[in-house]
Amino acid sequence: MTELRETIEHFxxxxxxxxxSEPGEELIRLSAxxxxxxxxxxxxxxxxxxxxxxxxxxxxxxxxxxxxxxxLRIERFGKRQGTLALLDLRRPAxxxxxxxxxxxxxxxxxxxxxxxxxxxxxxAELTTEADLEHSLSPAYPRALLQQGSxxxxxxxxxxxMFHAEHALTFGLIWLDYLRSRDTGRVIQGLxxxxxxxxxxxxxxxxxxxxxAAACYQVFIYDAQGFEAPADLSDYGNIDTRLEPCRRRLPxxxxxxxxxxxxxxxxxxxxxxxxxxxxxxxxxxFARTAGAELLYGITRRRALAAGxxxxxxxxxxxxxxxxxxxxxxRLNALYTxxxxxxxxxxxxxxxxxxxxxxxxxxxxxxxxxxxxxxRGVLDVLAVDQRGRLAVLELKASQDIHLPLxxxxxxxxxxxxxxxxxxxxxxxFPGVGxxxxxxxxxxxxPALDFHPANERVLRFFSPSIPVERVGVGLQWRRELKVVFxx
Length: 484
Known about the structure:
By secondary structure, the protein is α+β, with helices and mostly antiparallel strands. It has twelve helices and 24 strands. It is 27% helix and 28% strand. Strands 2-1-7-6-5-4-3 form a seven-stranded antiparallel β-sheet, covered by helices on one side.
């Protein structure tokens, strides 16, 4: 770990303009005031922050290093591995040329795809240039096809899962941009080229977009460069599961838990598996595991006779450092995981988000489904009429928030239609109606990405979606400042 830390420190110290970049996150320019490496706890934690976001990752190795770039292997929440890059913005990395070359090569492959499948159309525009003003990514070649006055927008996704998953977001933004720019043209819809094996999520999402707003065509290409049209009706199967909701029986840990809950700021959250999670403003510091109580921030150990005071001291220290009025706002315990802090405030004050919502019960992260690290937290609640509400929470800008929220809504609707929630023990005593669940996107008011509203225009009208902006001081007071 010492060698790993020294490599990172040496690289950053040698940069003229250091920055940190992770796929899907905003670029963070680094200085001594917003960058930290911490080796306590037996592993190396990297933290960087800006006015808009906070990023904490466990660094597990070096992927590769070149002039102007250090690519790190990291571990995200849930032990998912990925990469992030340390960059010197004044010394472009050597592989940037390689990256650009790869993008240009795929652009030409994309051109061949379009010519083969749409021989009667002229490729009026084809580009991989970045357009930050309109949120258009250089990672995806995008085109405008024209035949007389009839046109199609088109976009291609490179072969990795990350880009395939996010292609629809940028495709819809491209379609909306062309329609607003070229008002004299009739742009029928969007054509997507997706790598084989990575198309399922996008095709499922398309089934829940508004067919009156745009038409969609999907083509799947393989490693040999051959493409074929996809039949969207083949993608209605949903990868989801709903575990039974269990209730924890009274036991010998109850007295200890009750004493821990006397610490101001500690919350007990009942998990669907019957366990209890003890948290301070969203950050878990202890949880039951059968007959044991495990406690700790980075490393957990079991509560034993005589060491309850350790747990109480941990809770008190966490409550002091992770408090709205904390004096040290750069402390890692204050800045870590703003989404879970926002979730804790929303859970405790659901009536502030919507006066019709019942304060209890509310569940987090159900149902489960296979997906990448979404970076979004989910709360499933119910209103006074028995209608479900899906709350998607994000404490910073995320261009992919609408479609990530749609993924979760689709699965909730699927289980609702099959009456799974009541059968599995969720919402006891509440008669659930089968109306489509409401979808509430909750974020600080200034942290909705400007492109979110443009993507939401393409959602099916059968999905009742609402953006709920809370005040920037939501840690001190959760207050809704706009609804849209």
